[in-house]
Write a structure and sequence with these properties.
Length: about 210
């Protein structure tokens, strides 16, 4: 004899009312999340627009730190230009050594120039673009390779109290106290929402391949 069991009321599915309530709650959560997200995004955008235009100056100084630290000699320099000599490297990027009367020493490789020019990178042009040019040991002239930064204005560098003039972009210290250090001042200019802003970045770079 079969016994008929009454259905358990707890095993029934969701009613339409319960489903609607769940959807309303999920919608409210999603709406609140979207409000918070777009509010934070708007606040970030306002802060980003208000930030000073330091990217050009910062990028230039970071690149100069990386490049100049790997040099072995400062060949020439002026207020707005500098020429370094890098050590010669082999296929494994290891420094090539030459045996002399007093032992081994670094072999001279590429000469690298950092200078201001126009958008063409010409070594004889004037402008506000900071360039890197390279001359290999077998070459007779420099070849512009990399545009490091634009909108560079050394005339807006902080004033040197000793001279009353803007600090030079490059100042070479060939003495034992500063360990062959190069002092760098880079000022960039940008227009943010119609307002001209400047940012100056200062650094002292020391040659490590002496």
């Amino acid at each position: 004899m079969r016994v008929l069991r009454r259905p358990n009321p707890r095993s029934r599915g969701m009613t339409l009312v319960e489903l609607l309530v769940a959807m309303v709650i999920m919608g409210m959560v999603a709406y609140s999340t979207a409000l918070i997200y777009f509010s934070e995004l708007n606040l970030y955008s306002k802060r980003a627009w208000a930030m000073p235009p330091f990217d050009e100056a910062t990028a230039a100084v970071k690149r100069l730190n990386k490049e100049v630290r790997g040099a072995m000699l400062i060949h020439d320099h002026s207020d707005t230009s500098m020429v370094t000599i890098n050590p010669l490297t082999d296929a494994n990027r290891d420094n090539v050594l030459t045996l002399g009367t007093n032992g081994y020493y670094l072999t001279q490789g590429d000469m690298v120039a950092f200078y201001l020019s126009d958008s063409t990178g010409s070594l004889t042009a004037n402008g506000n673009c900071l360039w890197k040019a390279v001359k290999s040991p077998s070459a007779t002239s420099f070849t512009p390779r990399v545009l490091i930064a634009e909108n560079i204005h050394p005339e807006l560098n902080p004033v040197d109290p000793d001279t009353g003039l803007p600090r030079p972009m490059f100042k070479y210290w060939p003495d034992d106290v500063r360990l062959w250090g190069v002092e760098v001042w880079v000022t960039s200019v940008a227009v943010v929402r119609g307002e001209t802003k400047t940012q100056t970045v200062h650094s002292e770079i020391y040659l490590r391949n002496l």
